[in-house]
């Protein structure tokens, strides 16, 4: 990707310290990070939430978000220290010499202007070329980014194109003035895996084509491996390590770096049986007039874990809502432990409700922010089992111990817990009902890698101890490999296939499963190249 | 620099707030950081409340006590003079705090209760009940409250009870709107779904799950609407249709003494007499606005949505 | 005020039979609900009926001096529209300017004093502001008249002079609201991601505001304006009373006193329909300025 013989330093950041203001006081976000970038090189910046990677990326432009300030450090770009420039001077560099690609393209495009006007606005302002030349160039950029209808797509408004397309148009917008450096700030995080592959390959080819230097920020090591020549790992505002991509993948020096892909090392032997805890038969369901589930049938064996995999819009979460009764099906039936469940929530008995529990993706919104841990876990105990007072408290503490927390957490509010702790409390709340079936809806998606591993291990242990059955809804194949016995693949409201993990994950596959599985980035810098070669054949 | 990940434990995970604080401590901290304007607002409000509760003990004369001299000047036995039929103005100002605050508070509370309960029910339902309630509220809101009150008062006759009931019902539309829109945001959150899935009753979901989480915007709205009701009642009283005599009312006092303004060039205190009750209303509204602004700041951090 | 127009006009001494006679002539003996629908169907045919007042107190007197409601209302309506129109022309540009500039220089001394001052004006009832103006500019320093006494023959220049104080009052009272709402609408837009993106692509301060913020601000600003026009209309009732200005608000209050139901109903209808039209207008501007609704997928 890089021509190493031409090592000319483009950006040099020295000893960057940045503070941010929140909760009425200043916090350190970056504590002295260095960064070097050569012309035509791509540097991957990775870390978990709160690592300061995004702040670092913006600092590379000499920009800090409102409420943040650069305490000390130099940002030498092309020989000038951006930290010392005035806003006015920096504006001449922004958008022309350095451009920025944001995570949420949908929110970052101005809803009031056509895409073409926004694409060429920076180059137009700098009068790099006459407008009609810029327009033609933009169409060519659209073409090389493999956008459909490149001639006319620029005439649309942001809300008229899809998320993956917007992300590519934003890349075209960044490339239009032919900058020397592009900052990619988590550009594919919000996208589905199959879309992510398209966007990644488009971005890589265009950066290669113009030999532009780039900083690529992400939390996903496998993604960054496809893009970067070098990788820098950040944690809590400090550098953990930095090395060439190949070396980093084959031989990470620090424990922390290894832990970043620990989930991928979790493996569970598969088992199944014909004693179904739950079977759903030929289910149709709709939101208003739009039908989202078409003839879905799934069987869940007792005491096992079935993973339902699919991308957004596949109907996997809708399936969960139908099972719980939140969204009554329009056709078909649900058999739970040999008995038919009524479609409507209100018509199910308290006992039926107790036996099926659900854990949601976002623990922040799954708990009442005004209730303490004691109230959150204690309510189902009281509600279902009629246990009160001292006995109730002992039970709550038992549950807290089961999820590896203790009684010191009793009077905490959700806002006083970390993400992983919150999800554990949600698990305890589900367990408090003493259920037979727990539906886990993307329970690890919002969590950092290491925390994910902890939660998955806990869920496995609980299954072993208590014999509960899990339905595990997720879009993440690594999680599926780690936890499931059986897999159901869904696409556009239909079941593609169901079977044992080994059967689904190994060929031969139906077309969609093939596409889905092959789109999951692997820890191999050549993965994307190989995949594209394979697909073009 | 490396952290040993093998020692990872759920308990040790760093949470966002490092220091545990009880509710009382948090309130204490909020008060210690309250800006001057908030203190001003709170002190002014407590003076008004004090005057309202202890009016008979503070006021030098009775509310409707008539003295021989009408339009007596300031000073002497009548600190702020007497009105057109010889009633002590200072005493009436103090008694008026009772009447105005009492009537407005009752009307606002009725509006809060009716509006909030129906608002949350509509938010949970999101189908027929919601449609019927929302559309009829839209219709009610299409007519400006003061004009509507005008018409209703001229149909039912102006009495303090009618005033409270009419304003309570008309203003409940605002509480309906706000509680519905805030509650809709909460109802779709998973914690409400969890409660539904547990099989909880509607009343539990309204009062235990949703209400605590929409309390802050409702408190703000209560302040805003309270000011609005004071203004509406005052405007009505000023026009002669609001709080009924002999009960004292600030705005009615403005109208009764307005004629004195013409004599301001001879005696400035005469010109100020009708302005004092008006200033009292303005000061009350300002104090409530200050407290609302501060409350908004501490409950929503950076939110800057003052209407 | 118990009783109705009939007892009001004939006084306490009237005989029962004469009250009954007047009642049936005015239609007050009928149930209010059919009476209302009868009125409503007449309104749709352009007939607002005639006023109660001005009727002869003596039964059988042929000199009926009652006037048509429409005749009564039209000149008053013109006066009110003049007052609110002039106030709006002063208040809207001023409030938008103050609101936008306060949002741009957020938390500056200028912003703090502007929002502080607006809070004071918002907290003052119309009659307070009105009487302060009277005290200062009509009594202590007699620059303007206390009473805004206009009639159909008043010239335009004189009209401006006579209505100066009511216009000041109405302007001040609505400006505070409008300025605060504009400010928070603009701040809301300035904190969105596409504004940060525009800054990061090198847009100048001017460009950020004019090209990126304003096109998205029209809808909220239009809403702010129409809400405040409606507010101004209601405020004009009290202001007209303070300055004894012969507008529709003054007429309505007088008619409520006299229980002159046809006039009250007609005035209320005018207020309510203006209010509804203003709100519809706000929605319409919201749709026109929103590309999402203009260019569907």
Write the layout of secondary structure elements.
The complex is a heterotrimer of chains A (537), B (307) and C (297).
Chain A: E1 9-22, E2 25-38, E3 42-46, H1 53-59, E4 68-77, E5 80-81, H2 87-93, E6 98-101, H3 105-108, H4 115-119, H5 121-125, H6 131-144, H7 163-175, E7 181-185, H8 193-210, E8 213-218, H9 221-227, E9 230-235, E10 238-244, H10 245-250, H11 255-259, E11 276-287, E12 290-301, E13 305-309, H12 316-324, E14 331-336, E15 339-341, H13 350-355, E16 356-359, H14 363-366, H15 373-385, H16 389-402, H17 419-432, E17 437-441, H18 449-466, E18 469-474, H19 477-483, E19 486-491, E20 494-500, H20 501-505, H21 511-519, H22 527-536
Parallel strand pairs in A: 3-8, 3-9, 6-7, 7-8, 13-18, 13-19, 16-17, 17-18
Antiparallel strand pairs in A: 1-2, 1-4, 4-5, 9-10, 11-12, 11-14, 14-15, 19-20
Helix pairs in contact in A: 7-8, 15-16, 15-17, 16-17, 17-18
Chain B: H1 23-32, H2 36-53, H3 55-58, H4 89-125, H5 128-141, H6 145-156, H7 160-187, H8 190-198, H9 202-238, H10 250-257, H11 268-272, H12 275-300
Chain C: H1 5-10, H2 16-26, H3 32-44, H4 69-104, H5 109-123, H6 126-140, H7 156-162, H8 164-190, H9 193-200, H10 205-242, H11 248-258, H12 261-288, H13 291-294
Helix pairs in contact in C: 4-5, 4-8, 4-10, 4-12, 5-8, 6-8, 6-10, 8-10, 9-10, 10-11, 10-12, 11-12
What does this structure look like?
The complex is a heterotrimer of chains A (537), B (307) and C (297). With 537 residues, chain A is of the alpha/beta class. In chain A, a hairpin with a 2-residue loop joins strand 11 (276-287) and strand 12. In chain A, strands 6-7-8-3-9-10 form a six-stranded mixed β-sheet, with helices on both faces. A six-stranded mixed β-sheet of chain A has the order 16-17-18-13-19-20, sandwiched between helices. Chain A contains 22 helices and 20 strands. With 307 residues, chain B is mostly helical. Chain B contains twelve helices and no strands. In chain B, helix 2 (36-53) packs across helix 4, helix 2 (36-53) packs across helix 12 (275-300) and helix 6 crosses helix 7 (160-187). Mean pLDDT of chain B is 83; it is low at 1-7, 15-19 and 302-307. Chain C has 13 helices and no strands. Chain C has helices spanning 5-10, 16-26, 32-44, 69-104, 109-123, 126-140, 156-162, 164-190, 193-200, 205-242, 248-258, 261-288, 291-294. In chain C, helix 5 (109-123) crosses helix 8 (164-190), helix 9 crosses helix 10 and helix 10 runs parallel beside helix 11 (248-258). The longest helix of chain C is centred in the C-terminal third of the chain and has 38 residues, at 205-242. Classes of the chains: A alpha/beta (537), B mainly alpha (307), C mainly alpha (297). Chains in contact: A-B, A-C, B-C.
């Amino acid at each position: 990707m890089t021509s190493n013989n031409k090592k000319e330093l483009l950006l040099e950041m020295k000893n960057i310290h940045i503070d941010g203001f929140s909760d009425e006081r200043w916090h350190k976000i970056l504590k002295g990070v260095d960064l070097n970038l050569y012309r035509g090189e791509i540097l991957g910046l990775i870390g978990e939430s709160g690592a300061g990677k995004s702040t670092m990326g913006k600092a590379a432009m000499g920009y800090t978000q409102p409420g943040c300030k650069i305490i000390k450090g130099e940002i030498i770009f092309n020989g000038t220290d951006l930290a010392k420039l005035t806003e006015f001077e920096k504006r001449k560099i922004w958008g022309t010499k350095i451009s920025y690609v944001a995570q949420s393209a949908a929110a970052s495009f101005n809803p009031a202007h056509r895409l073409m006007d926004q694409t060429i606005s920076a180059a137009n302002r700098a009068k790099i070329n006459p407008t009609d030349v810029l327009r033609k160039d933009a169409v060519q950029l659209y073409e090389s980014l493999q956008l459909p209808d490149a001639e006319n797509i620029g005439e649309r408004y942001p809300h008229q194109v899809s998320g993956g397309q917007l992300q590519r148009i934003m890349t075209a917008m960044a490339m239009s003035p032919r900058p020397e450096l592009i900052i990619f700030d988590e550009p594919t995080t919000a996208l589905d895996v199959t879309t992510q592959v398209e966007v990644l390959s488009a971005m890589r080819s265009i950066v290669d084509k113009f030999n532009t230097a780039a900083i690529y920020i992400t939390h996903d090591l496998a993604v960054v491996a496809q893009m970067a020549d070098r990788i820098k790992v950040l944690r809590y505002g400090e550098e953990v390590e930095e090395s060439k991509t190949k070396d980093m993948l084959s031989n990470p020096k620090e424990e922390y770096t290894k832990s970043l892909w620990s989930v991928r090392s979790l493996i569970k032997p598969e088992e199944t049986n014909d004693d179904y805890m739950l079977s759903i038969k030929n289910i149709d369901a709709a939101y208003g007039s739009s039908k989202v589930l078409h003839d879905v049938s799934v069987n869940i064996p007792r005491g096992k874990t079935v993973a339902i995999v699919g991308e957004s819009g596949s109907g996997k979460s809708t399936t969960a809502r139908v099972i719980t009764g939140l969204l009554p099906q329009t056709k078909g039936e649900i058999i739970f432990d040999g008995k038919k469940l009524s479609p409507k929530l209100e018509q199910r008995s308290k006992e039926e409700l107790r036996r099926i529990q659900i854990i949601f993706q976002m623990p922040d919104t799954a708990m009442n922010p005004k209730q303490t841990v004691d109230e959150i876990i204690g309510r189902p105990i009281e509600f279902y089992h009629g246990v009160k007072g001292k006995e109730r408290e002992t039970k709550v503490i038992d549950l807290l111990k089961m999820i590896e927390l203790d009684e010191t957490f009793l009077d905490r509010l959700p806002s006083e817990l970390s993400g992983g702790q919150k999800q554990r409390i949600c698990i305890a709340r589900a367990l408090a009902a003493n259920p037979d079936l727990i539906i886990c809806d993307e329970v690890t998606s919002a969590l950092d890698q290491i925390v994910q591993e902890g939660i998955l291990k806990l869920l496995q242990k609980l299954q072993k101890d208590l014999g509960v059955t899990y339905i595990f809804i997720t879009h993440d194949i690594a999680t599926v490999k780690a936890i499931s016995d059986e897999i159901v693949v869904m696409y556009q409201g239909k079941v593609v296939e169901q079977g044992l993990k080994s059967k689904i994950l190994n060929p031969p596959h139906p077309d969609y499963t093939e596409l889905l599985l092959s789109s999951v980035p692997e820890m191999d810098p050549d993965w994307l190249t190989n995949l594209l070669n394979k697909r073009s054949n | 620099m490396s952290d040993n990940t093998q020692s990872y434990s759920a308990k040790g995970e760093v949470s966002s707030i490092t220091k545990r604080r009880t509710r009382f401590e948090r309130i204490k901290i909020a008060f210690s950081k309250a800006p001057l304007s908030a203190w001003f607002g709170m002190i002014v409000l407590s003076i008004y409340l004090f005057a309202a509760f202890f009016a008979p003990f503070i006021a030098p004369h009775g509310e409707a006590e008539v003295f021989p001299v009408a339009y007596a000047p300031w000073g002497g036995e009548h600190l702020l003079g007497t009105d057109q039929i010889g009633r002590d103005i200072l005493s009436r100002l103090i008694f008026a705090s009772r009447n105005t605050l009492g009537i407005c508070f009752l009307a606002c509370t009725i509006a809060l209760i009716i509006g909030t309960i129906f608002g949350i029910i509509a938010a949970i339902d999101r189908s027929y009940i919601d449609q019927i309630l929302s559309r009829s509220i839209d219709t009610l809101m299409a007519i400006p409250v003061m004009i509507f009150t005008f018409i209703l008062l001229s149909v039912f006759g102006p009495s303090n009870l009618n005033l409270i009931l009419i304003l309570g019902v008309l203003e409940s539309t605002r509480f309906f709107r706000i509680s519905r829109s805030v509650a809709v945001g909460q109802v779709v959150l998973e914690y409400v779904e969890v409660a539904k899935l547990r099989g909880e009753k509607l009343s539990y979901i309204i009062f235990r799950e949703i209400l605590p989480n929409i309390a802050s915007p409702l408190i703000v709205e209560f302040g805003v609407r309270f000011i609005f009701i004071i203004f509406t009642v005052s405007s009505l009283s000023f026009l002669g249709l609001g709080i009924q005599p002999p009960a004292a009312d600030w705005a009615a006092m403005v109208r009764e003494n307005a004629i004195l303004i013409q004599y301001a060039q001879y005696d400035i205190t005469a010109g100020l007499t009708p302005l004092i009750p008006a200033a009292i209303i303005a000061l009350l509204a300002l104090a409530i606005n200050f407290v609302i602004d501060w409350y908004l700041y501490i409950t929503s951090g950076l939110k800057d949505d003052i209407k | 005020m118990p009783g109705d127009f009939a007892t009001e006009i004939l006084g306490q001494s009237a005989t029962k039979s004469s009250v009954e006679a007047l009642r049936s002539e005015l239609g007050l003996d009928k149930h209010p609900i059919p009476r209302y629908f009868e009125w409503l169907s007449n309104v749709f045919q352009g007939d607002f009926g005639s006023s109660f007042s001005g009727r002869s107190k003596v039964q059988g007197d042929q000199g009926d001096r009652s006037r048509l409601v429409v005749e009564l209302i039209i000149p008053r309506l013109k006066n009110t529209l003049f007052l609110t129109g002039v106030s709006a022309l002063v208040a809207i540009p001023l409030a938008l300017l103050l609101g936008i500039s306060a949002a741009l220089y957020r938390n500056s001394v200028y912003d703090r004093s502007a929002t502080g001052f607006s809070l004071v004006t918002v907290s003052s009832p119309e009659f307070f502001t009105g009487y302060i103006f009277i005290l200062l500019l009509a009594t202590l320093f007699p620059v303007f008249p206390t009473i805004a006494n206009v009639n159909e023959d008043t010239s335009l220049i004189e009209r401006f002079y006579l209505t100066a104080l009511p216009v000041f009052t109405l302007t001040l009272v609505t400006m505070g609201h409008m300025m605060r709402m504009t400010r928070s609408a603009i701040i809301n837009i300035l904190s969105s991601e596409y504004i940060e993106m525009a800054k990061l692509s090198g847009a100048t301060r001017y460009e950020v505001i004019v090209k990126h913020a304003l096109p998205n601000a029209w809808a909220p600003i239009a809403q702010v304006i129409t809400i405040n026009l409606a507010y101004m209309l209601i405020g004009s009732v009290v202001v007209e009373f303070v300055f004894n200005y012969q507008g529709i608000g003054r007429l309505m209050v007088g008619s409520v006193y006299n229980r002159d139901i046809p006039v009250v109903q007609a005035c209320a209808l005018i207020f309510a329909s203006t209010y509804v039209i203003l709100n519809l207008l706000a929605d319409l501007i919201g749709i026109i300025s929103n590309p999402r609704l203009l260019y569907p997928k």
